[in-house]
Structure formats: C-alpha cells, structure tokens
Amino acid sequence: MNRRQFLGAALGAAGTVATGVGLGGYVLPLLAREDLIPGQPPDIVLRPRAWTTTDDRVSFVAIGDNGSGGRQAMAVARQMAETYQRRPYGNVVLLGDISYYGRFEDRFTDVFVRPMGPLLDAGVSFDLAIGNHDEGLRHSDEAFEEIEAEIRLLRTPGRYYSRRLGPVHLFLLDSSRPGLFGPGSSDQLEWLDDTLASSDAPWRVVAMHHPPFSSGRHGSTPGAQERLVPIFERHAVDLVLAGHDHDYERTEPLGGVTYVVSGGGCKLTKVGRSDFTAFAASILEFLHVEVDGDRLVARCVQPEGQVPDRFELRARTRGRR
Amino acid sequence: MNRATVERVAVVLYGLVDWLVIMAPSLAVKLAADRGGLGDSRGLDLVIASLVVAVPHAIVAATRLRYEETAARSRLDVWIAAVDALVVLALATTLLIVTVLALFAEEHAALANRGFPIVALWIGLQLVAVALAEVTGRAVFRWLEPDAPPAGRRGAGGGDGVRPEPPSDRDARQPARGA
Fold first, then answer.
1. What ipTM was estimated for this complex?
2. Residue A57's beta-bridge partner residues?
3. Parent domain of B126
4. Number of folded domains that form chain B
5. N or C, fewer C-beta in 10 Å, chain A?
6. What is the pLDDT along chain B (179 residues), one digit of tens a residue?
7. pTM for the whole thing?
8. Which residues of B touch A30 (CB under 8 A)?
9. CA–CA distance, A146 with B112 (Å, rounded to integer)
C-alpha cells in the first residue's frame, strides 16, 4: 500500500466509523424523534361555540409539547379539529413546550395560529401551563423572556392561575425553575394549597409541564413527588395532566390521584413502564376529557382518530369539604 | 464463483448500499410517522422523493465503479475511492437535511405557508449530497490513479476499438515494467 492509498483508506475508515456512530447513533434518531418537516395546517371550518358547558358538564382537550409547527404537529391539530366536530369542546389546555426551533414570538404564527386556526376561529379558549422550554429545568433570562412572551401572546392571566370550567376547577401551574422547585417556590405552593382548600368544585384537575410520575425519557421530575403529591392527595385532586416527555402515559390511581403524561403533541421519544404505569405508548396524541356529573371520561386520541387508551374516573366527593 | 462474478456482485451490492444511504433519512421520517400513528400515506412523499434521487444515482455509482475497475491499475484504488464517496454521501445526505431543516425552521415554514413544496427542498438537498459524493469519488480515484483515462473518454476509446486492459493483466505486468 502506497502513501496515497494509505491516506485514502484511512480517511475512508475514519469516515465509516464517524458515519456509523454519528448517523446511526445520533443524526438519524434525531430526524426520527423531531418534527422538522413543515406541514400544512388543517383547512377545516368548525361551527363556532358548538360545545355545551353547564354546572355539571364540560369538555376540554389537553395537549403537550406540540410546538414544532411541523407535519406531525399539524396532523395532531387536524385531529383536534375533527374531534371538535364529533365531540365539541370549549377549552384547550396547553401543557407546555409550545414553541420549538426558535423563539415563540418569532414562531407564534407557525406553531400556534396555523395549527390551531380552526379552533381559534370557533372561539375555543386556550390555557397554558408554562413549560420551561425546553432543556430540563432551565433557569435563565432567555427562558424568562420566552415565558413572558408566551403569557403575553396567549393572554394567559399569569405564570400560575386557576379557572373554573363548569364542574371542573382547573389549576395551571408553572413548573419551571424557580416556579415549583427552586428558591421562591413556596409562594406558588402556598397558593395551590390554599386555592385547592377553598375550592368547592366537584372536580379538581391540575395541569403542569413537568410530570410527577413518568416512565419516559426525562422520567419523574425530581422534587415533584415530595413537594406536590402530598398537596394533591390532601385535597383529593382527581387528575394531574403533564407533558415534557414526548409520549402518552397514564398511571394507576396513586393516593387516589390519576397522573397522565400527554406529551405527544408533535415529537416522539421512547417510554418504558413502571410499577405505577397503567398504560404507556410512544405515540402522537392529545387527551380529550368529558365530564358529566360525577363521571369523567378521557380518551387518548391519535392523529387518525384511533383511541389507544380510555379511562373513567368518579368524582371523589367524600374527601372534600 | 469466479472472479468476474464476484466483481459483478460487489458492484451490485455497492449500488444497493448507495441506494439505501440516500433512502435512509426519508425512511427514518416515515417509520417515525408510522410509529406515531400517522396514516400510511404520511411521509410517503419524501420516500418517493428520495427514490427519485436514489435509483438513478445507484445506477450511476455502480456504473462508475464498473468503469473504474476496468480502467484502474489497482483494484484497491477503486474501492478506496468508492468507500470515500459512500462516506461523503452518507454524511452529506443526512447532515444537510437535518442541518437545513433544524437551523432554518422558520424559513421553511414560511415557504410551506406560501405553497412551496417541501419535497422540492428535500430533493434539492439530496442532489447536492449526491454531487458532493460524485466529486469526492472521482477526485479520490483520479488522485490514486493519475494515469487512468478519464471516465468521459471511455466512449471515445471504445469508438477507436481500444478497450482498457483487464486489471489482472496489468497487475501481472507490473514487475516486468519495473524490471
């Protein structure tokens, strides 16, 4: 082998190793788990205000981690619009991470207005549980600016707040740092404790970005079980909705509380099973919730309308004041 | 199996690997869409777009390899150039797509909003990757085999009734030439 052959072969061998490790281990999996292909928004016209909300009846949808503006996000959004046609709802609970691949202010139209256009036109309202967008519990000026932009553009009342939807008292938490897990977090925890204590709603649902229980890529959020779960159990919360992991997972009732991760709004990562898992799948989805009296029915809906998981809850009236 | 058959099989296998390398990004997207629960047709446009690039280039790459095998003095030079081209193809076809899609997401969405077919962007990026691989393969081969007739003169040589000598004959003559 002469010098040129040695150099050419060495480059080829090094390139083969780099290609095998880099592409097989990182780039192709990245392409598979992200939602980088731009998509067309749903072109569906919905009947405005077709839902019915009374003191004992309401429907809403929860979706997390849907901020790509890509093809998969559009497919989920289309199914949200089609589901509205069959089972109208008046509220969408966003479980955080509503803008990827850029600042929310710049991508507002791409990641929110376009996919949610039919629902916005139909008068559906949106609530936001702040996700810290998106690398763990990041704490920086940039993250705060992003959160402020989300609050301003979505006209969210605050970083954490509650609102009444028919028989449901919905609590939207800011689980970013320092929101729930850092210095100063006691303010929000005190507010949650007090507001739950004073709630007379038959149903109590909490929405937050970081899941207390998860078998997904990020897993259960450190600190959440110690700080939040005792409050949820003490005040007989029925359902806790979260995102962050890009999958769907429902737990068995834990201390009477059912925890759902609905983070399959546009991207996918693998999910395992834990001893608390009732159902888990790495799928694109959103959660459709119907409450009628003391009965809550929730369906995990996939982009083609499949329902891989459905569960029912009964209101836990006995534990309340 | 004689040597000529082995060479033909190797060339066909190289063409298949070349095809698979170009198809890989679109297959990754399609498989993810399937796993996520999207319909069968979602992602198929990118698979077809990659097919449009991959099938002709697999034929071009195999043909180039076949020609180089007949024109080169050393079979090792041919395969070094071929592997280098394949590595560049694999890196470029995937990294270009991921880089352009991830770094310029706002621009694509704006293009898609105006009806620009994202398939055209996909094909364009893969054509760039193919061009880079072709340039690499030919350049490395030329660097290793400066005396080999350029691929463009192959037809002229055939028209003159002159065919490149089989590599085995040339290899056999090497010691005599040096003596």
1. 0.83
2. A54, A292
3. 3-178
4. 1
5. C
6. 688 888 889 999 999 999 999 999 999 999 999 988 887 667 788 999 999 999 999 999 999 998 888 888 888 999 999 999 999 999 999 999 999 888 887 777 777 777 678 889 999 999 999 999 999 999 999 999 888 776 655 444 433 334 444 444 444 444 444 33
7. 0.86
8. 98
9. 25
